[in-house]
Amino acid sequence: MTATRTTSARSTRAALAAAAALAVFTALPASTAHAATGTFFYHSSQSGDLEIEDPDNGECYLLLQGATSVQNDTDADARVYYDQGCEELADTLAPGVGRTFTDPLARSVTFG
After folding, report:
1. Are 47 and 65 in contact (CB under 8 A)?
2. What pTM value is reported for the model?
3. What residues contact 93, with CB distance under 8 A and at least 6 apart?
4. Residues in the chain where the model's pLDDT stays below 70
5. Which is nearest to 23 in space by CA: 35, 31, 15?
């Protein structure tokens, strides 16, 4: 019987430890992506006037057919890129700032 009690006690302690770990884990705030508030406007000569509403920070957004002008009306910095993969930085625009592009055009943007 001693072996059974020891195994039972170990099982109980393991279950309590698992329950405590789960309680701590669920008590932590959920990690959510923060979004910029506002609208990023851009113009494409082929697609016309377009916008990105409340964009997620850190996500790379494609600017359809390239943008000839952009306006950052969000509450976060907008990093505008010449390539479609958000790697070749063209400019960083503070909230409320706009810019025009000729050649090359702006092709993607991130926020935050």
Report:
1. yes
2. 0.70
3. 70, 72, 77, 78, 79, 80, 99
4. 1-33
5. 15
**Residue 8 and residue 16 in contact, taking contact as beta carbons nearer than 8 Å:** no
Q: Map residue 24 onto helix, strand or coil.
A: helix
Locus of tokens 């790379």: 60
pLDDT tens, position by position, 28-53: 344 346 899 999 999 999 999 999 99
Q: Cα separations (Å) of 20 from 9, 12, 13, 24, 91?
A: 16, 12, 10, 6, 49
The one-character DSSP state at 105 is P
Q: Give Cα 104 to chain centroid, integer Å.
A: 26
